[in-house]
Each structure stands twice: as C-alpha cells, then as structure tokens.
Amino acid sequence: MSQQAKGIPVSDGIAIGSGWIYHPVTIKVERYQNQVPEFEKTRLETALQQAKSQIVQLQQRTRETIGEEEAAIFEAHALFLDDPEFVGAIKAIIEAQRINAEAAVEEVVELYVQQLLSLEDAYFQARAQDIGDVGHRLLCCLLGVSPEGIDLPEAVIIVAEDLTPSDTVQFERSKILGLCTVRGGPTSHTAILARSIGVPAAVSLALQLGDLQNGVLLILNGTDGTLTIDPEPQELAQARQSQDQWRSHWAEQVADAHLPAVTKDGRTVEVVANIGSVMDARQAIEYGAEGVGLLRTEFLYLDRQRMPSQAEQINTYREIFEVIGNRPLVVRTLDIGGDKAVEYLGTKSEPNPFLGWRAIRMIDEKPEILRDQFCALLEAGAGFDLRIMVPMVSSLDEVQQARQLFDEAHQALRTTGKPMADKVQFGIMVEVPAAALLVEHLAKYVDFFSIGTNDLTQYTLAVDRTNERVAHLASPFHPAVIRLIAGTIQEAHAKGKWVGLCGEMASDPLAAPLLLGLGLDEFSMAAASIPVVKQTMRRLVYRDCQEIAATALKLPTTNTVLEYLQQVKN
Ligand code: PEP
Ligand code: MG
C-alpha cells in the first residue's frame, strides 16, 4: 500500500524518483569548566576566521551556480560572525563562566534563536534558521568536523527535516529531482532554491523521516504539495501522465515567451531581464528576454580584498555580452556603499546607510572607480548594443559629472586605438524623488531613464526597504509613487527620451495595465517572470489601459489603487 503525505506546495511540477533522506552532521557539545579564558578566546577567533572563509567560498559557489539573490544569504551569515554584540556575548560567557568556547557558542546561539522564534513572524523564524546555521558552522570549525561534503549517489528527490542555505548549496544541481521538507514555509531556503533551479518542491510535509528508507520510490507533486511514498503501479502511471502534461504546458509557456509583448490593439513594449551574473544572462534568454534592462554589477566587487582588475572586468562583461548577443544590454554602474560594506572601496558603517555614501555619491572621493568601469564596459562592449546607466541620481551636477567621466573614458580609450562600443546610450536611474521631479532638466544629458521602484518607493514613503516592521507601509502602488512614475514618463517623452522600469513592480501582472497605460516603453524583471508578464500584456488593450491609468492616478490611497486594478483585471 502506498502512503501519502500532504504539505505546502512551493515550486511547481512533478518529480518521480528515488528518495534520499538527508541527515545533517549532528554534533554534541560537551561543557568543560575551569578553562583558561584567553586560550578559549583564541580558539574562538580562529574558528570565526575559518567559518568566514568557508562562507565566502560558499557565497562564490552559490553566485556562480544559483544566482546573486541566493548568494546574498551568505553575506548576512558573514556579517553575523562580525557582529560585535554576538561575538562579545560569547567572549563574556567564556570569561565569566570559564567554560570551553564550544559550550559558550552553543549557549549564545540558542539564546538568539529562541528570542527570534518567540517573535512568531515568518521573517524572524527564517532568520532563526540562519543563525542556527551559522552557529552550527562555527561549532564544526571549533570541533574540527567538516560540515561540507554532501555527495548525492544519483539524481534523487531529497527529503529532509529542514534545509539550511549551507545544506542546499552542497547538493549538485543536476542531481536534484525535487526537494521536500518536514519544516519550512513558502519563503524558506528550500523554496527559494527549488524555484531558482526549477525543480518541484513541497515543505511542511506531515511526515516522519524515520519511516523512510533511502532509495524508496517517491512521487513529489510540487503543484498540490503531496508526496506519495512507494506508489502503486496505477498511481505511478498517472503521475507519469501528469508529468508529461505539466512539462508540455511549461514548454508552451516558455515557447510563447519568445514572442513579442504586443497588446490586442498593436502596441509593443520591450520586455527585458534583470540579471546579476553570467548564469542569469543565460536564463534570461531561455525565458524570452529581449535584452537586459538592468545588469547589477556589484557581484564583481564583493567578496574580495581589492578592486577587480581592468582585465577581469572586461572578461566578465564580455562573457555576458556574448550570451546576450545583439540584444540591448543596460549596465548599471556600481551601486555599493552604505549598507554593503566593501573595505577596499572605503565604505564605513553609517547610522542611515540608505541615506549615505552610496552609488553615484562615491564619484567625488573615488572617481577612478567609475572611470575604470566605463573604460572596461566600452572595451568589452565593442560590437554590442551597450547602454550604461548611473544609479541613485539626485541632482543635475551628478549627471554632468558622470557624463564628463564617461566622455573622458571614451576619449582615453580612443587614443589607444582599441576597438570599443560605439553609439552607447547613456542613462540614469530614477529612484530618488528629486530625480523624478527634475526629469525635464536631466533629460538634456541622458538618452534614457530607468525607474527603480524599489528605491523610489523607499525614498518617497520614507520606509527602509530592509525593515520588516514597516514593510506593510511600502508599496509602489501608493498614489505618491504612481504620480512620480507618471510624471517621469510624461516629462521624458516630452523631451524625446525613452523610459524603462526595473524595480520589482515591473514583474507584477497587476501593474501591467497601469504601467502600459502610463506609456512605459520597457519592462525589466527577473527572468522567471517574463513568460507570465508577456502573456498578460497580450491580453490587454492599450487604449483601455490609458483610461485605467488616468483613473488610477486620481485615487487617494494604496488600497483604492489596488482594489481598482484588481477590479479591472477581472
Ligand atoms: C530599484 O531600486 O528599483 C532597483 C531596481 O535597484 P536595486 O533593487 O538594485 O536597488
Ligand atoms: Mg535601487
């Protein structure tokens, strides 16, 4: 008799294959009294360094094999090991109780985890898992146990109690047929990993791991969240049929994604991708991107001790250009500083990082960073459709300064006689309200604008985008944000410039009629959203969208805007 377990579906599709039960390395910490505090603190320091270097390697591997977003999880882990409060608490216990470092680490990690779990918010629960993961790594380093080395025997469906980010990146991607866990929610790392590599997954499964054996035949349905253990022949036949249907449906969607986004009355808009690595570029093309509307270049500068060399920058950009071919590639110059500390660039910890020394604001003190980046892009972009944009602009002076550096880079390269990109479009991001209000003047110095609604929302509504506690106040559908978007498009068009939008809002099908109606020319989003957004646009009528946008612009609150867009969608 087969058995079924029900859970929460988090990644679509059907996987059929052998189950592989994952048991993480368990460690038992002994507590020793009367230790020498200085000796234990030195051991702790060594373990902290070792754990950090493991994390940097994992981050690098994740960036290359999965993507920038997932790699950022490890950045948070590394920061935690540098947190003076966390490390200070461990040292204080070592001194006060004269116990071994392992016992002190275990005590402090447990305290942090329990405090977070008591907050009952899904976000904090997930952070508790992150801290548990970091603590486990630190203990492994102290005890000389290797936390790595998960070797999958064949392509399998992985079944686990829970999966931490460190666990998930250890598995070889090509050997994962599906993922299922007893714990975890829709935003857990299991869900993120499954969606980004495109395998079915379910979490929160009502299952006893002890009842399962490695190699047992499983059917995992990531669309309805069920796991069938040891299926009967007719269940297996039915699952194979559903799997075939699902695969052909997905293939159809992806095939359609390569068609242009044209409304029923013939207005065509460009749908392009946001990328942050060579790997993302490949996925973008697969999912029908007509180019790239935002290449985030930060990945070239993170996890290292010094500036990437000119040759390194050129090689990486070239690799991306080769994947994108003759499609347009909009590269955003470095957007770092404030909340992302990179010592060799001179960033410091600041009380209000989002209002601090960030992105284009580095230009006064460190013009060479931008100049080098311009040179590398111009050289790598020879023969390609290169477009460059500058982030976080808030005044005309900044645009003029950036433009001048760009012209200098152009001039310098010309004298070398090397081939370089020609007819490069120069643009800016509109993500500070000041820039949105000055489009009329800024337009003289740029070829295009790209609206960054993630930051534009943050700065217009004074809501820190990383602060979960005020997250409910942040919405790009807030009337003030919509008015700034509308004004930007109108002013830019009046000056003959095109406008794109590369914040998360572009991937929301609910926003499509509004943004189309406001006259947006280019929509840039995560690759996986392209098929559905293009499909949504093909069902719209541009003339109706113009009316929808005009009505939405008159509404007074975020909720009335959302309700209205929901109503016209149905
Ligand atoms: C934005 O602010 O909308 C944007 C696209 O940039 P980032 O999310 O990288 O700040
Ligand atoms: Mg931004």
Description:
The chain contains 20 helices and 17 strands. 47% of the residues lie in helices and 14% in strands. It is of the alpha/beta class and 570 residues long. Helix 10 (310-324) links the parallel strand 11 (292-296) and strand 12. The strands form 2 sheets. An 8-stranded mixed β-sheet has the order 1-8-7-3-4-5-6-2. Strands 10-11-12-13-14-15-16-17 form an 8-stranded parallel β-barrel, surrounded by 5 helices. The structure holds phosphoenolpyruvate (PEP) and magnesium ion (MG). Magnesium ion binds at residues 391, 431, 452, 454-455. Magnesium ion is lined by residues 391, 431, 452, 454-455.
By helix and strand content, what is the structural category? alpha/beta
- The Rg value, from CA coordinates, equals 26 Å
What would you call the quaternary organization? single chain
Termini distance?
Answer: 44 Å
Sequence stretches where pLDDT stays below 50 over 5 or more residues: none
Mean of residue pLDDT values? 89
Name the bound molecules: phosphoenolpyruvate, magnesium ion
How much of the residues is beta strand, in percent? 5-15%
**How many strands appear in the DSSP assignment?**
17
Strand order of the largest sheet: 1-8-7-3-4-5-6-2
Major sheet size, sense and barrel closure: 8 strands, mixed
Number of helices: 20
Broad shape: globular
Characteristic key phrases:
17 strands, 8-stranded mixed sheet, 8-stranded parallel beta barrel, binds phosphoenolpyruvate, 570 residues, alpha/beta, globular, binds magnesium ion
